[in-house]
Design brief:
Layout lengths: L4 H8 L2 H19 L2 H16 L1 H17 L10 H35 L4 H26 L9 H8 L2 H22 L1
Helix pairs in contact: 1-4, 2-3, 2-6, 3-5, 3-6, 4-5, 5-6
């Protein structure tokens, strides 16, 4: 099995913000019912989601380096670089919210274990930051989808790249055919 940084990034990239979204449900229930078990469930989910962020960032950076070195550039259309740059910029700027969420959720979890009566006091900051992580994750992901999906780029960009797709597919097919011929002659 040949797992590349871009495959790992695609597998992990939803965990921080979707985990934050899932954490909001038990955190909200904990706040409303003052239930320690719900608070623990929400905080554990928030901690896992938040601390997944460094792994997502590392795999994204490694995938971008492979793009710059060339191995994956051949699989992307010409407009993908613009999407890559935007995605990297957003991730670097907005992932900080997820890091703060991870730290606050970890502190909140420790406080809840220390003082179980503080259910409402620890769920509020964690829930607010989980909501912020969800929104920032959506903002980051919105720029990541168009890297491989020209149809996600909107009407103007999608219309510009749509006519090029058959040419790119034909070019790739010709390259594959040439490589196959070369392999057969060896």
């Amino acid at each position: 099995m040949n797992t590349t940084p871009e495959h790992l990034h695609l597998a992990l990239n939803h965990l921080p913000f979707l985990g934050a979204a899932f954490a909001l449900i038990p955190l909200g229930l904990a706040f409303l019912t003052n239930n320690k078990t719900a608070a623990l469930a929400g905080l554990i989910c928030a901690v896992i989601a938040g601390w997944a962020t460094p792994f997502v960032m590392a795999t994204g950076e490694a995938a971008y380096e492979r793009y710059e070195e060339g191995p994956i550039a051949q699989f992307l259309d010409p407009q993908a670089e613009t999407s890559l740059e935007e995605h990297e910029h957003r991730a670097e700027a907005w992932s900080k919210v997820m890091y703060v969420s991870a730290v606050v959720a970890t502190i909140s979890l420790a406080l809840l274990l220390w003082k179980p009566a503080w259910v409402r006091a620890v769920t509020v900051p964690a829930a607010v930051l989980c909501a912020a992580s969800l929104l920032s994750g959506i903002w980051i992901a919105e720029s990541g989808g168009p890297i491989r999906r020209p149809d996600f780029r909107g009407a103007q960009a999608g219309a510009a790249s749509a006519p090029e797709l058959p040419k790119l597919k034909a070019k790739k097919k010709q390259k594959d055919h040439d490589e196959e011929k070369e392999h057969d002659t060896d």
